Amino acid sequence: MENGSKGYRSLLVEGLADYEPFDATEAAHLRALIQFLDRCSRPFSRETPEGHVTGSAILLDKDRERALLLWHEKLRRWLQPGGHTEAVDVSPQTTALRELVEETGIPEPALNLVKDKVFDVDVHLIAARETTGAHFHYDLRFLFRLVDGFDSQAHGFRWVDFEALAGMEDESLSRLGRKLRLGGA
Questions:
Q1: Quick check: 2 pLDDT over 60?
Q2: Which of 104, 17, 5 is nearest to 53 (CA)?
Q3: Cβ atoms of residues 113 and 30 within 8 Å
Q4: What percent of the chain has pLDDT over 70?
Q5: Is the Cβ–Cβ distance between 106 and 150 less than 8 Å?
Q6: Helix, strand, coil percentages in the chain from 3-state DSSP, rounded to 5
Q7: 67 to each of 34, 42, 117, 164, 181, how far by Cα in Å?
Q8: Which structural domains are found in the chain, ordered by start?
């Protein structure tokens, strides 16, 4: 499948049709995403100068009390696993799952997709770097749960409870923590 194919886009638009934003910030992010999809012919391509749709995984521990964060070296901050849509991805969920497996090394059978629908929408600006200009990531976040053991200490990741996540300085993670804390998980 080629990035930006009508099948992937259709699945995405379908998945957002009855989506209820958590707050005014997420409602603005959802509007921006939908407008981007309406005007952009290649919304999944890294070559689109304005930005592109990305997929992230919010991984919860077995008890659904904490979320896994990893250190993103290029951005110099803690984030959930996630990244760019690739040609092998057949749906927004598969982007998130593939990125989760790639970035954590957790085997797919140890993971469970909690909800088949988008859990959170976040739009954020990525600063210009040597090879790319500033652009937006229209990020679709999906909720996963760990069903088998994983030693996060050995991999340099960290589990963060929802309260601590809600108190983080990063607005995107803080909003996510508030959403999880209020029963979104």
A1: no
A2: 5
A3: no
A4: 92
A5: yes
A6: 35, 25, 40
A7: 27, 32, 18, 10, 11
A8: 6-41+50-184 (3.90.79.10)
Long-range residue pairs from 49-52, CB within 8 A, at least 24 positions apart, any chain: 49/133, 49/135, 50/135, 50/136, 51/126, 51/135, 51/136, 51/137, 51/138, 52/84, 52/85, 52/135, 52/136, 52/137, 52/138
pLDDT of 47-73, one tens digit each?
999 999 999 999 999 999 999 999 887
Residue type, 146: L
Tokens 């508030």 map to which residue? Answer: 178
Cα separation of the two ends of the chain: 31
Q: How many residues does the chain have?
A: 185
For residue range 83-121, list pLDDT tens digits in order. Answer: 998 988 888 889 999 999 999 989 999 999 998 889 999
